[in-house]
Amino acid sequence: MTVTTRSPWTFALCWLTVVFEGYDIVALGAAIPRLLDSRYAGITALDATFIATISLVGVGIGAAAIGPITDRFGRRIPLMLCVLVFSVFTLIFPVLPNTGLLALARFLAGLGLGGCMPVAVTMMQESARENGKAHSSTMTMTGYHAGAVTASLLAIVFGAHWGWLFTLGGVLGLVLLPVMWAKLPETSTVATGGHDDAHPRVRPADVLRQPYLRTTLGLWVAAFMGLLLVYGLNTWLPQLMRGAGYGVSNSLLMLLVLNVGAIIGLLVGGRIADRRGVKGTTMFWFGAAAVLLLLLSIRIQNEILLNAVVLVTGVFVFCAQVLVYGFVGYLYPRQIVATGMGLTSGVGRIGAIVGPWFTGLLVAGGVAYPGGFYLFAIAAVLGVLAVAVIPKPRLTTPTDGQATRAARAA
């Protein structure tokens, strides 16, 4: 399947940047049991929970803050700075002597990491053909799952030597930087002096004013629900399935099958959205996810059928979230598209924290099965409703005046 972008370097480097996020999330998850077993730096379960949470807080702040910066100064240099910050603080993480410094390093690495994905997706959309923005977004996000699979395999190879996961991630980020400097083109018209003088510059705060308010709120709620699903399922699916009576090995296999389905969904979902319409496709994807999640709340005896349902669930759940990002390039004028993308991603990260946390409460209360799947299905339905209120986008990147007229007309 081809990628609808005019620059192969843009795709390759943006895709590799997104790889780091999937790699980092899994690397931390794989390292925490090793940290606790070895009592590294006197770490406790409470410390580990705080470190994991503060890392996600950093990612959310980084995602929200990067948009206005790149809308003002361009995409290329801020993206490289984000990679630099992430790489340095990931590299030093394994050698820090106490939990306070470990948490600080994870927070700062999260700031850099949070800025990477929204800028990478924005650059991909800007370098894509006008009717290929959703597909370019979903193709870029396959990097997340490639990074997650890579970190999973390396965690097995490194075993108790958990520090090598972070050392390798930091080194690879630093190695990528000179390649980005040499080969990554600038995609922002602001940085190249190509802005449209026929209309006044839109200020970043205008995403919360008319005519963008309805669009912004719809995107934020949809992104929140989407990442609640993604992180909630990736964190707790094995435990939920164990609560249903499935074996441990089967539960872990289902997590792998879920992410294989995610890759399939990302490969096809964006192309369908660009051809059939981003709004209708995203609503269908969220709706199908809700039905499948409810189906998983029923114990399925046939193992092949069960894994098939999990696979198809992955196809819809993960791609629905990424299709929300596919909206952004069609709905905001180019002058503030990175601001819209960054804020949408940043608010979505709150869902990434709430999802695992609330599901954990259900696990602790002994009602995670089937209650967890009911929670996820409700989140998917709310995703449908959020997308429903977003104005139907044009299949071109709007200028300031076009976006304003389209939003008012809707």
Pick out its properties.
Growth Hormone, Chain: A; disordered N terminus; 78% helix; disordered C terminus; mainly alpha; globular; 410 residues
CATH architecture descriptor name of the largest domain: Up-down Bundle
Mean pLDDT: 84
Beta-strand content bin: under 5%
Sheet bearing the most strands, described?
Answer: none
CATH class of the largest domain: Mainly Alpha
The CATH H-level superfamily of the largest domain is MFS general substrate transporter like domains
Q: Low-confidence parts, pLDDT < 50 over ≥5 residues? A: 1-5, 194-200, 397-410
Number of domains: 2
Strand and helix order: HHHHHHHHHHHHH
**3D shape:** globular
Helix content percent band: over 70%
Number of strands: 0
Oligomer: single chain
Overall radius of gyration: 20 Å
CATH topology of the largest domain: Growth Hormone, Chain: A
Keywords: Membrane, Transmembrane, Transmembrane helix
Organism: Tersicoccus phoenicis
Protein name: MFS transporter
Subcellular location: Cell membrane
